[in-house]
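Quick sanity check, NBS-LRR disease resistance protein:
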Amino acid sequence: GMGKTTLAKVVYEKLLNYYEGSCFLADIREVSGKRGIIHLQGILLSKVLEETNLNICDDHEGINLIKRWLHRKRVLIVLDDVDDQLEQLEKLAGNHNWFGPGSRIIITTRNKHVLISHGNSNIYKVEQLNNDEALELFHLKAFKHKQPTNDHAIFIKSVVYYTNGLPLAL
């Protein structure tokens, strides 16, 4: 609810035209649990290569295909909502030499330790909104303006307090 996915989507949309290929892999935690890592590897390759007829037999083949086909391509990849399993990162974006020079891999997760274990040193922590920012966001979304009205002041303050500054909840 901090806005990690929303922030990643905005960055992705602004940057994708500067790369030879791109992929936003959403909800990795959920998709991996339901469909498996091979499915995610297939989506990644299909989107970056703009190829629909990919058949990956197992995750090791998926790793080899990603390395072989993307190691010279400048790509932008977002891995959204990676869970605590380092395996997901290792099988989707093992290390930087899997991709061409200038590539960017953006990872959103609730657990920064999985990023550290994967060797990522550029970690951006999304902070909670302060009270003023939370009020402004709520007004923009609920009332389509920034200035509070006296009629709703108590209600608004209780909503902001209850949501604890989480943008998605607001």
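Posting the structure with no commentary besides this: The chain has eight helices and three strands.
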